[in-house]
Structures are given as structure tokens and as C-alpha cells.
Amino acid sequence: MSEQVDVLVIGGGPVGAALARALSGHPVSVMVLEAKTSPASDPRVLALSHGSRLFLERIGAWQNVRNATPIETIHVSQKGGFGRTILRAEESGVPSLGHVAGYGEIHDALVEGLSPEVYVEGAKACEIDLSRGAVDFDYLGERRQICARLVVMAEGGKLVEQVEGIEVHRKDYGQWAVIGQVRTDRAHDNIAYERFTREGPVALLPFGEGFSLVWTATPEFAGALVEMEKGEFLQKLQDHFGSRAGRFVDCGKMSGFPLALRYCEPIVAERLALVGNAAQTLHPVSGQGLNLGLRDVAALSRSILDCRIEDIGLPGMLSAHAKSRRMDREGGIRFTDSLIRIFSNEIPLLDSGRGLGLAALDCLPPARKWFSRKMMFGLRPGRIL
Ligand SMILES: Cc1cc2nc3c(=O)[nH]c(=O)nc-3n(C[C@H](O)[C@H](O)[C@H](O)COP(=O)(O)OP(=O)(O)OC[C@H]3O[C@@H](n4cnc5c(N)ncnc54)[C@H](O)[C@@H]3O)c2cc1C
Fold it and tell me: Are 234 and 251 in contact (CB under 8 A)?
């Protein structure tokens, strides 16, 4: 294992792995430290936008994603109120608005072909000394150190607290997501549903023969849902979601995730850049988190490859990178946070406002097209692909 690299990535989730993959084959040495020995064993199922798919294609990972289900239509509605919006792929001139795939599948597709010297499993970073670009990590029961021109934190936000000069902002939504697979008595026809309720959004993503469910609820109710017997769970889901996707007939094991908004300012420091959930962890409403993280990677890999090796990690390169990410990042944070503030509350007057908003979007094809493109490519498309 080498003791000096150009780019050291802490965290080999999909975002860290994507960065290693985007840099591989170029004259930049990169190493990823991943704490777990089986990082792909995560129950989440994720919606990747069409823009993310194009990026994964560009870095040679998309062809490894073998079980992705296309989303051709997105149906957005609110429970107990009028108004709905339907977004269609054909209207935006793309074959699909996105694809749904398992976290593990996306992760493995990104790691496939990276050597064990580049993607090091079971290596947990513990201490960072940015003045020297040095990171201490535990590997096979031993403490080791590696130095880098640039340290990239892609560890989901656990270590960021250690870094001086980075402020971490937090907002607890008081909500959990209950996730798992469900089936209805109808084919999904590649339609994804996002239904806003006062307790939080419920999403059904077409996945394989059925749907992947993301049901937002209070922590207490989420705990009860995870433990609930199948028949009772299906009935509760039917009552909550309604019959738009058919009758719920089966479900798998459910898991719970606490939900919060967490973001860092700035996203760069001496010899350091933050990407993915380490930079910003969003509410899963509208499936933005990984898509935004992949756009972080697209921009950072471009900044790294566009500069001389000796300039990697220097302040000029890092501040230009942070500037290039500002609009898209702030847009993603504001968008998801506003959806939760506007839709998850009991103010009756807002019901009509929300309904009017959904209905207006539905009646205006150019607005729908603009909205779909922002969801697919982010706020600065020119910088992404
Ligand atoms: C319920 C739910 C549904 C979601 N749905 C969507 C969706 O549909 N679409 C979408 O785009 N996003 C979605 N997201 C968000 C998405 O899951 C995250 O944005 C994405 O997983 C972030 O990837 P990451 O690689 O940055 O972080 P993570 O996936 O958290 O990976 C971080 C990695 O770092 C490793 N690590 C941690 N500490 C250390 C250390 N000290 N040393 C070394 N390694 C370390 C961890 O083991 C892990 O492998 C959803 C999130 C949730 C909770």
C-alpha cells in the first residue's frame, strides 16, 4: 500500500467510489479508504436521474448496473387536497426521467474494476492532519498513515466534525423514512409516485416487478411500522397512500432511517474537499441526495484533471471548485427543505395553495419541462456532463 497519493478519498460509498472511478485511467494517483468490509449491504433503493445515468456512462460504470428499472412518468399529488402534476420522459425529450436501482448494485457497479490497492476495504480513517495532508487509519488491526495532496471526505459526514474551519448546520425533521419493497395487484408501468401528506411524503418507485417504498412518518409511528405484521402494514399503507397504484398485496422486510438536513459551509478547507453526504445530507423527498453527490464528483474530478498535478489541493483550485458547486448545492438544499416545510404541515390555507401550485405546473408544459430538466441535471447542467 503506497504511503503518498495525489487524492485520498475517505469513504467508499457510491460517491467516494464514483470519484475514484472518474479519476482512474488518468495520470493522478488515488486511493479510497472504506471502513466497512461489505459497504454494499445497504437496504436503500435509489432513484438515479437521467443526468446521473449519463455521468455513470461517462465513467464506465452504467454498463455494470444490470437491474435498473426506468422511470418514464412521475406522478405528484397531495393527500386530502386537489391538484396533481404528471411529468413525462417523452415531454422532456429523454428516454426515461431516471432509473431505480439498489444501493448495493450502484455501489458495486462503481467499484467493479478498481484494484484492491485503489479501493481499500476495512480501512477506517481516524485522524486527519490537514497541514500535512496526513490521514491516520486502522487497517487489519494496525494503525497506518497516508499523505495526500488532496483529502476528499466522502464518508457521509461522520468525521467532518473533526475539521477546523468547517461549520456544520443541522435541522432535525422529526421524521423517519420507512423503506422496503411492496407489490400491488397492478403492473407499475414505470410510473413513480410522490404523494405529499401532512405527516410527510410517501414515494413509490417502480423497481423490478413491484415498487420500492419510502414512507415518511414520526419516529414513533415509523418504529411501529417496521415491527408491524404484514397484513396490518399493507392495510395501513393502503389507507395512507390510497389506491392510485392499485391494491397493496405483499411487502418485504421494512427498515427505518432517521431524517435530517445537515450541510457544511464551506465545502473546502486546506487540502480538503467534501462531497456527497459529507457535504450535504438531504431529506430523501424527490430523491436528490445521491444525484447531487454525483454532481459534486463530476465537478471535483473535472477540477482535479484540469489542473497540474502539483496544483491539486491548492487554495486556488479548491476555491474555484467550491464556487462552481454553490448554486446547484444551495438549490438542492433549499428545494428539498422547502418541499418538507410547505407540504408537511397542518395549515389549512396552504392546502389550496399547494393544490394550485401542482395544478398550475400540470397545465404549463414549458414549466413542467423546465422543472424536469432541473430535477435531472441540477441547476448548472453545463458543469455536470
Ligand atoms: C431513505 C432514503 C432514501 C433515499 N433515496 C434516494 C434517492 O432515491 N435518490 C438519491 O439520489 N438519493 C437518495 N437518498 C440519499 C442517498 O442515499 C445518499 O445521498 C447517498 O447514499 C450518499 O452517498 P455517499 O457515498 O456520500 O455516503 P454514504 O452512502 O453514507 O457512504 C459513506 C461511506 O463512508 C464510509 N465511512 C464512514 N466513516 C468512515 C471512516 N472513518 N473511514 C472510512 N470510511 C468511512 C461508510 O462505511 C460508507 O460506506 C436516500 C436516502 C435515504 C436515507
Answer: yes
Pocket test for ligand 1, best of 31, 161, 175, 277 (most atoms within 8 A of CB): 277
Q: Which CATH number fits the domain 4-169+259-383, given the four candidates 3.50.50.60, 3.30.750.24, 3.30.565.10, 3.40.1370.10?
A: 3.50.50.60
Interacting residues of 326 by C-beta distance below 8 A, sequence separation 6+: none
pLDDT in tens, 13-70: 999 999 999 999 999 999 999 999 987 789 999 999 999 999 999 999 999 999 999 9
pTM summary value: 0.93
Residue identified by cell 405528484 is 76
Pairing of β 255-265 and β 280-281: antiparallel
Taking the C-alpha atoms of residue 356 and residue 376, their distance in angstroms, rounded to an integer, is 24
**Mutation probe of ligand 1 site: the residue of 33, 41, 44 with most atoms within 8 A of C-beta:** 44
Amino acid letter for position 378 = G
| Ligand 1 centroid to residue 286 C-alpha, Å | 16
pLDDT at position 376, please? 77
pLDDT on residue 385:
46
CA of 249 to the centre of ligand 1 (A): 30
Measuring from atom 17 of ligand 1, which residue has the nearest CA?
290
Per-residue model confidence as pLDDT tens digits over 217-274: 999 999 999 999 999 999 999 999 999 999 999 999 999 999 999 999 999 999 999 9
Task: Report the pocket of ligand 1 as residue ranges, CB < 6 Å.
Answer: 10-16, 33-36, 39, 44, 46-47, 124-125, 154-156, 158-159, 177, 179, 214, 257, 276-277, 284, 287-291, 293
pLDDT digits (tens, 9 = 90+) for 296-334: 999 999 999 999 999 999 999 999 999 999 999 999 999
Burial of 336 (0-12, 13-18, 19+ CB in 10 A): buried
